Amino acid sequence: MSSSFGTLLRITTFGESHGVGIGVIIDGCPAGLPITTEEIQVALDRRRPGQSDLTTPRKEADQVEVLSGVFRDETTGTPISLLIRNKDQASHDYSHIEHAYRPSHADYTYDVKYGRRDYRGGGRSSARETAARVAAGVVAGKLLAQYGVRAQSYVSQVGAIAVPVGYEQLDLGLIDSNLVRCPHPETAERMAELIRQTRDRHDTVGGLVTGVVQGVPVGLGEPVFDKLHAELGKAMLSINAVKGFEYGSGFAGTLLFGSEHNDAFYTDENGAVRTRTNHSGGIQGGISNGQDIYFRVAFKPVATILQAQATINDQGEEISLAGRGRHDPCVLPRAVPIVDAMTNLVLADMLLRARANKV
Ligand SMILES: Cc1cc2nc3c(=O)[nH]c(=O)nc-3n(C[C@H](O)[C@H](O)[C@H](O)COP(=O)(O)O)c2cc1C
C-alpha cells in the first residue's frame, strides 16, 4: 500500500481521522526555500472544517507543527515533517457505522480489502488526510513562486448553478471574497443559497472546481507515461469525492472539428511564441507549452446525508441507516485549497524533473 506521491519532490502522508494526528513528510525539497509556519497555517485555515455555515460545523483548529527540515524560516534540504494533531474528535458520532456500510462511502471496500476498519470518522478514507496535502502544497507553491509559476482554483459550479464566463474574464483576486470561493459574486450568492437549502433538507450537493496555472515555462511534463496532464489527472482523482477531470477543451472539444480546435501559433511583440486559442489547455504532447494550464475537477454530492437510507451491515443483512454527526453539505468551498495543493505538488515535481532532463 502506498501513501506517497511525486518523483523528485515526494510526499508521504500518514494518520487517521480520529487517531493522534495526521501529517506529511516531504522529501526532495531543495535547500534555501523561504517558508514560515504562518504561511502553511493560512492554507490550512482555508481547508479547515467549521470555517463558515456552508461547511461542516466540526471545529478543528488544524494547527500545524513543523517538526523538521526548516531552520530560520528556510528549508534545509532534509526531509520536512509537518504534524497536525487531531483535537475535535467525536468518535461516538460514528458508533452506528461500526458494523454498517454507508452507501457510496469507503466502508465496504476498506472492510473487504483489509478485514478491519477504523470506522471512527472514516479513518484513513476520511478527507481529513487532505489537510496533510494542503500543508505540503504550500512548500511546493513556494518553490514554484521562485520561478514565477502560480496555481489558483475556484468553485465554478455548484449543482446546476455555473459561473457563466471562463477564467480569463474573471478577477481571480476575488476567489476568497466570499464563503463559496467563487470569483463571480452574483453566482457565488446563488451557490451559497443552494448549499444552505440543501443543508436544511439534510442532503448534499456536488459541483466543479476550475484550476488555472499561470507563468508556466515550456517543457514541464514527461513524454510518455508521466505526461503533465496525466499527473494532474491522477493528482485530482486521488482527492476524496472526485468523479472527473478534464483539461483544456476537455469533453466539449470533441464537438469541434480540427479546423476549429487547432491552436494557431504566432510570435508576439516580445518575440515569445504564443497560441491564439488555448484548447490545448497549455499542454501538448504531455509537455507544457507556455500558455496557461486550465482544468476542471468534478466533485460528487458527498455520501453522508442525515436521512435514512437502505444499506447492509457487515453480516450482509439489509438495514436502514441515517447519517449522524457533523458533515459537509457541499465540499466544494473546502476543496479549493486541496486542488491548489495537488496542482502545486505536480508542477513543482515536474519543474525539478525538467531541470534534470538537460545538461
Ligand atoms: C473537503 C472534503 C470534505 C469531505 N467531507 C465529507 C463529509 O462530511 N461526509 C462524507 O460522507 N464525505 C465527505 N467527503 C468525501 C469522502 O471522504 C469520500 O466520498 C469517501 O472517502 C469515499 O471516497 P470516494 O467518494 O472518492 O469514492 C469529503 C471530501 C472532501 C474533499
UniProtKB/TrEMBL annotation:
Binding positions for FMN per the UniProt entry: 124-126, 240-241, 285, 300-304, 326
Keywords per UniProt: Amino-acid biosynthesis, Aromatic amino acid biosynthesis, FAD, Flavoprotein, FMN, Lyase, NADP
Reaction equation(s) it catalyzes: 5-O-(1-carboxyvinyl)-3-phosphoshikimate = chorismate + phosphate
Pathway(s) of this molecule: Metabolic intermediate biosynthesis; chorismate biosynthesis; chorismate from D-erythrose 4-phosphate and phosphoenolpyruvate: step 7/7
UniProt enzyme class: lyase
Gene Ontology BP annotations: amino acid biosynthetic process; aromatic amino acid family biosynthetic process; chorismate biosynthetic process
Free-text remark on how the cofactor is bound: Reduced FMN (FMNH(2)).
InterPro entries: Chorismate_synth (IPR000453), Chorismate_synth_AroC_sf (IPR035904), Chorismate_synthase_CS (IPR020541)
Pfam families, alphabetized: Chorismate_synt (PF01264)
Physiological role: This reaction introduces a second double bond into the aromatic ring system.
Protein name: Chorismate synthase
Organism per entry: Hymenobacter crusticola
